[in-house]
Amino acid sequence: MKSVGFDNAKYVQMQSQNIRDRIKMFGGKLYLEFGGKLFDDYHASRVLPGFEPDSKVKMLVELKDEAEIVIVISADAIEKNKRRGDIGITYDQDVLRLTDAFHGYGLFVGSVVITQYLGQPSVEQFEKKLRLLGIKVFRHYPISGYPTNISHIVSEDGYGRNDYIETTRSLVVITAPGPGSGKMAACMSQLYHEHARGVKAGYAKFETFPIWNLPLSHPVNIAYEAATADLNDINMIDPFHLEAYGITTVNYNRDIEIYPVVQAMFERISGESPYKSPTDMGVNMAGYCITDDEACREAAKKEIIRRFFQTSCSVRQGFGEPSEIARIELLMNKLGISTEDRPVVSAAIKRAKETEGPVVAVELADGRIVTGKTTSLLGASAALLLNALKVLAGIKHEIPLISPIVIEPIQELKTVYMGNRNPRLHTDEILIALSICAATNPTAALAMEQLSKLRGCDAHATTILSRVDESVFMKLGVNITSEPEYQSKKLYHS
């Protein structure tokens, strides 16, 4: 069984209180730059077992009477239809998704800020759409000499050109669909405008990783490097914090590199900097909530191996660079781990050699490994799901869960009416078929009841999965990886 290594309730309480303390520190108004994912932070839940994916938004709910959300998106991301790598939607679509998600938690979304605005037609169209939906929109403009020309940036011709974001609450959370949106610049611009209006306000930064009070070489922090191999983030000892306090803390290269600039901006805006280091700016309490260090170390090592496979597949598909794989390999060597440390990998490869076809393997919570192979009726992923549910329910392998009279019409629909060459059922189709059978078949119903037991399990495929199969595994909470190989030699892969 998987060990719990993180106290989620303590985290929500500590994090909320620390943010309240930071608001008081600045006299009642705080702009909080929120990095990482507010919703569905599955990376954190994988490397800190016990961390709930929606912990950060639950923490904000604790502060909902004091908080408002400002969502930042760059005009460049809108114009280029930039997409989120995890859920596949464009940044402008994600602004609407995030707004709905915040509203669902009872959180107030005050406005949307478009950064790097240059009057792009697609951006103006998006602005119009937001305003028709009743969402306030503000514009921030490119500033020449950013981020080094401080005297120009912190002036009427710099931050002064930007719209002042109208806010009403003491805590203003600045978030975005993804990196590079301009969150920090939006915060600093607001500090400039607030100071000009005689309003005392402060800035803080919320990044979960790297965890500042864990060692530099801790697997949890190294897992962050693996997760950001495409951004070339490197964890470092914060030299400013060490010099100021004589205490060793961990930050990452971009925050450390930009700190002198941020410090100079503070001094230019208000006459002094409230912080002596980039670590000072942070409010993250995650490191204080680890209850089992060894459990978190092991979970992080597993995550690094998963990142190796994910990155390898991304490169194979043309979405990444080989250097990213090399970076993760170095991290694995540093920790003395390899792909062989993930039992489902060798199990899947061994079974694939025996069957001479694609195979998917899953490791259940009790350590048992179940495999599924491609058949005339089912893809390997679909076969795996049925096999795993049978094992979990204690159903004999030879007992069918789905009647052929249900499968055959689906195959006919796919091949005859929809023109697909592949008659095999994918994971979504097999689960729909199983749910139909469960209405009249108690054995199928028993199998359906086991689906929740797959959450958190590791799985591995010997070929790159289709988007459909990958998506279903993600929704079920299965940590799926694949070998960087296609099932066929075709040039086009869906």
What is the strand tally?
Answer: 12
**Unreliable parts:** none
Quaternary structure: single chain
Indicate the structural class.
alpha/beta
What is the molecular shape? globular
CA-CA gap between termini: 36 Å
> Quick one: CATH superfamily of the largest domain?
dip2346 domain like
CATH class of the largest domain: Alpha Beta
| Radius of gyration, whole Å | 25 Å
- Strand portion, in percent? 5-15%
Q: Which CATH architecture of the largest domain is right?
A: Roll
Largest sheet: 6 strands, parallel
Indicate how many domains the architecture comprises: 2
Please characterize this protein's 3D structure:
- With 494 residues, the protein is of the alpha/beta class.
- The protein folds into 2 domains: 8-215 and 239-289, dip2346 domain like (dip2346 fold like, Roll); 342-482, Domain of unknown function (DUF1846), C-terminal subdomain (Cytidine Deaminase, domain 2).
- The protein has 20 helices and 12 strands.
- It has helices spanning 8-25, 42-47, 55-62, 75-79, 91-104, 121-132, 150-153, 183-196, 219-227, 239-245, 253-270, 278-281, 293-316, 322-335, 343-355, 380-393, 404-417, 427-438, 442-448, 467-475; strands at residues 30-34, 67-74, 108-115, 137-139, 171-175, 202-206, 235-237, 250-252, 359-363, 369-373, 458-461, 479-482.
- A 6-stranded parallel β-sheet has the order 4-3-2-5-1-6, with helices on both faces. The chain has a 4-stranded mixed β-sheet with strand order 10-9-11-12, sandwiched between helices.
- The longest helix is centred in the middle third of the chain and has 24 residues, at 293-316.
- The chain is globular, with a radius of gyration of 25 Å.
- The two termini are 36 Å apart.
- The mean pLDDT is 93.
